[in-house]
Amino acid sequence: MASSSSSDNKPNLPLKKIPGDYGLPLFGPIKDRYDFFYNQGRDDFFKTRMAKYKSTVFRTNMPPGPFIASNPKVVVVLDAKSFPILFDNSRVEKRNIFDGTYMPSTSFTGGYRICSFLDPSEPKHTSLKNFFLSLLSARHNNVIPLFQTHFSDLFVKAEAQLAKNDKSDFNSLNDQTSFNFIFELFFGQNPSSTPLGSKGATLVTLWLLPQLTPQITLGLPKLLNVLEDFLLHTFPFPALLVKPAYNKLYKAFYESAAKALEEAEGTFGISKDEACHNLIFMVCFNAYGGMKLLFPILLKWVCLAGEDLHRKLREEIRAAVKDAGGKVTLAALDKMTLTKSVVYEALRIDPAVPFQYAKAKEDLIVNSHDAAFQIKKGEVIFGYQTIATRDPKIFERPEEFVGDRFVGDGEKLLKYVWWSNGPETENPTAANKICAGKDLVVLMNRIMLVEFFLRYDTFTADIGTFLLGPKVTFKTLIKVSS
């Protein structure tokens, strides 16, 4: 089922004009914004245009548009053959395009352009990315025991909530637990022992929301759509509103990360101030923000898959841990092929960050499965990963969650899994934009399943939606049977 990607300047297929248009100035972008958030919804926004133009490559406007983004025009790529152009850093640029057609004010990040907004060609990107990779490498051996400590406490609290209320809100428990875990992983202390106390996750959320509001809808009644659109999608929120919260984060990070900041300055030539602002973004926006979405996504799909998958997972996990003397080790995890596949399948079918953007450095040709298209220098290319990673010409039963999809020969399909801003088969380096914590994310998701099914035989939950991701509410957690 696999097909090679193609994005060179020699079309392999007939060259066609890119279909679609941007509509009238001002009115076209606003119409597309209303379609995206209210009239059609995210998935149907793209699917209706794919059907209309009979093409997986087309032109449209991407939210937020006026008056946050001065130029909302993009060329959309939605199939597994055209999508990889977004990762070809020799031909596309990633400068100031992390959030899409708009960039939040640098006032949110101490006046600095954070690493996520830098192109790999910029020297500062190399210094910061190498700093991050060094930090992650030094903390690799602490991941399993720290994760077990923090998330065992989460499960105890979930069980107590179930006993008291007949339900347990996983998302709220996960938010606090994930922040405590990631903070201690990087800085060696629980945030409760810092000036943050128990308010770290809340302060981070306060800081994150104004930067993300152009991408979200609150799901309010239709009568309130115009009001919501005006408040969330029309004008940027000033960073001044969250400056007190951010200053508290900065103070706690600067004190707790003293050793890491010395390394940044002494080894990588980054000032402590700039390194601290980048650490806050990496830990809070990239890592913690990802965990807020990733774990509910994983549990959502495992829950919906049902008891047969639960049985297979618990049997594999418990056998591997037993063989390792009752301990969860990296060697034991490597034997859990189904567990790893389930993680990859969740990342494929429901990527936490589904949008990728890039800007063409030159005139270039992009090939889809059916045609070739010319994209002009300076045009913004946009990919919606949730559709591209369900390409029926690559994946069998692409709309289904298939837990063992990536077992055995299925591993060959991992090059079409792009949740980390690049193929799963490639590693993060200073020369690319692949998530520095790519391996950590996969490892944490695997440990989550291991810890869960060492403790429980099966579970049920209500699955809903909340802002950018799913909401998981446990209804039952069936403990290990004797």
The major β-sheet equals: 5 strands, mixed
Secondary structure tally: strands: 11
Count of alpha/pi helices: 15
Placed side by side, the strands forming the largest sheet appear as 2-3-9-6-4
Helical content, roughly? 40-55%
Question: Based on helices, strands and strand pairing, what is the structural class?
Answer: alpha+beta
Along the chain, the helix and strand elements come as EHHEEEHHEHHHHHHHHHEEEEHHEE
What characteristic shape results from the CA principal axes? globular
3D architecture notes:
The structure is a single chain. This protein is α+β, with helices and mostly antiparallel strands and 482 residues long. The protein is 46% helix and 12% strand. It is built from 15 helices and eleven strands. It has helices at residues 27-39, 42-53, 123-138, 143-165, 170-187, 200-212, 225-233, 243-256, 258-268, 272-305, 307-323, 330-334, 337-349, 385-388, 438-455, and strands at 15-16, 57-61, 73-77, 92-93, 168-169, 355-360, 364-367, 372-375, 380-384, 456-466, 469-479. The strands form three sheets. The chain has a five-stranded mixed beta sheet. Strands 1-8-7 form a three-stranded mixed beta sheet, with no helix packed on it. The longest helix is centred in the middle third of the chain and has 34 residues, at 272-305. It is globular. The protein starts with 14 loop residues before the first strand and ends with a strand. Mean pLDDT is 95; it is low at 1-6.
